[in-house]
Amino acid sequence: MNPDSALDRAQIALEGLAIGDALGGFFEFAHSTVPARVRLRQVPQGPWHWTDDTQMAASVFSVLRQTATIDQDVLAQSFALHYERSRGYGPATRAILGRIQRGKSWREEAPSLHQGQG
Fold it and tell me: What's the predicted TM-score (pTM) here?
């Protein structure tokens, strides 16, 4: 790995994101226990599971590695191909990724989300 390479730096960032995402997942719905666990520096037992954030970031990294740019069409297909409901995607994202999996164009589907800002 060459730390001067933009792609290698992106991979390091992805690895950090994945670790932070998986660690954060333990605290996401445990609001009352977070302060004590942080104060005591309690690291959760494994296994640690990443969320949709890491899943989608891995697609971004993969597309960058394949094309050296963000090709939106390739990225949308990668999001749909690697979609796993158990990762915690929100309802709108689940819906559009399902439509893309069924052959719909993300360019036609995205404007229907978030008051036309999707």
Answer: 0.83
